[in-house]
Input
Amino acid sequence: MVQTADLDELTSRVRGARAAAGASLEVSLGNLLRRMDRQAMREAELDRAVQPVNIPAVLFVVTGGVVQASTSAQALLGPEDGQVWHLGRVSLVPVGAAFAATDLPGIFRELTGLSGQGQNKLKTMGAAPNDTWEPTRIFLRSPETLSLVGSGLSGGITGIYLSAEAVAVEAGWISRYLL
Output
């Protein structure tokens, strides 16, 4: 026969177990919500750290068949300090005449004072009315910029517009971006 004291003790234990289970569940849910909040904050930070960049058409003047450096707009052709650009498209549009088959200007990764160095060449372009290149794994880090180099261009070409699209990534987020 079960005595009242035994029933009271058993009831008390069940209530205690329920209270402990409820508290444990509440703590677990609280931890889960905090983790979800941190994850949402990281995703929002990543959204701010990774932005598309449309690089407007920059005119490179051609004089005597030679592409001249575009010093006035050079700041538009590379990432700001603390950024990395992942190039997605580079386009060339000649001014004055179409590219001839022998017109092959080159796209270069330029470092200060190192314009047109062979080891920095990214792509030979031209020989098409409007030439577009869509690289997959080309990254520019500040202070690198895009540059256009060419000589022996057709006499009718008076300039070449270079435009591009990229994804700007804050340098601290590049590994996350690459995942």
Observations:
- The helical segments are 4-49, 174-178.
- The CA atoms of residues 58 and 73 lie 7 Å apart.
- The chain has a mean pLDDT of 83.
